[in-house]
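As a representative case, we now present a protein record of this kind.
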Amino acid sequence: MIHVYGIKNCNTMKKAFTWLEENDIQYHFHDYKKEPVSREKLQEWENKISWELLVNKKGTTWRKLSPEQQASVRDATSANDILLFNNSMIKRPVIEYPKGILLGFDEQEYSKTLR
């Protein structure tokens, strides 16, 4: 089973949902707003992808942080501390599939990996 993590109203998430549904791929959606991601889940992801990729530095939540808060994110532990407090700062979507993780929306990567 594929698990999709993110926020329902995010435009990137909507693209991912549309692609998955158009390609008849079943998934379970985990909404950060209803059930925050745990430290253990972040660490599990970081065993497969770099913590730097999980932190969405292009989003408004990151930009609202003070320069000091941004500078404090320098390793997995400090990143996880801020991601746990601000789940919306996790790059979206995070898609767990049997062989790994996809991050963000990339139609070509989805086609290659999930079909």
The chain has one domain: 2-114. The chain is about 45% helix and 15% strand.
